[in-house]
Amino acid sequence: MSDATINQAGTATGEAGFGDYFALLKPRVMSLVVFTALVGLAAAPVAVHPMVAFASILFIAVGGGASGALNMWWDADIDRVMKRTARRPVPSGKVTAENALAVGLTLSVMSVVMLWLAAGAVAAGLLAFTIFFYAVVYTMWLKRSTPQNIVIGGAAGAFPPMIGWAVATGGVSVESVLMFAVIFMWTPPHFWALALFMKSDYENAGVPMLTVTHGRKVTRKHILVYTILLAPVALGLCFTSIAGPAYWTASIVLNALFLKGAVDIWRRDEPVAEAAHYKVEKSFFKLSLAYLFVHFGAILLDATLKSMGVWA
Hints:
By secondary structure, the protein is an all-alpha fold. The protein folds into 2 domains: 154 residues, Orthogonal Bundle (Tetracycline Repressor, domain 2); 140 residues. The chain contains 16 helices and no strands. Helix 2 packs antiparallel against helix 3. It is flat.
């Protein structure tokens, strides 16, 4: 179908450009996929040829983008209702749903096959499972059926460092599992903080986010519980071979700040939060972004310092 007309079913207003198709791949999400996969690869104890590393990260990025395109294809109806997502290529009418599906399926197959050729079956298998988990298990099943959607579905975003590690080592280890666990445990408080001040979006779209099904008070308690559970997981990486001074320092400071932020959210009540336009919740959400990037940035820094002989 040509991207040439528009209606409520999601057909397009005019010829879609490169930028519209690139937006299908969720480039901001892709940047997190690329970064954490790169960290997993760099932290691994096995050296990888630069060309193999570059190709592998490229195909992992393509696989992440394929997941985004499949998500936008399936979720076009609810994306059209939510303010945060209404301008995405499919709901805005810039790209047809059929073309989004074609892009997603084509890139999925291409990324898995090429990663298999570049880095082996384990890395390719993990990438294939990641795409399947995000597109089918999370997007098509969990997202619209249970308030635990983001808890279980968070696994999809946690696999990239394991894939990067598998590119280098051909397998899985305690270190890669712990990197997975940090992202997995971080995802619920990160998204629930967003849901606290975007509750009406999910409510209007009929998405059973915890704020919709159980209310903001319960969500605040869950944020605190998951943040408490996250801290020992993140600090647990301090006792592995990939953590050094940079990670120890970053993890101690960030987990203290994150726990304080979660306690501040837990203590809030709705009249106060609404009057303050959810400033505490928005600050916690921004902190959650820094939390993940700084943790993995510290792992990357330690890997670099270790390769230079600064620490053993």
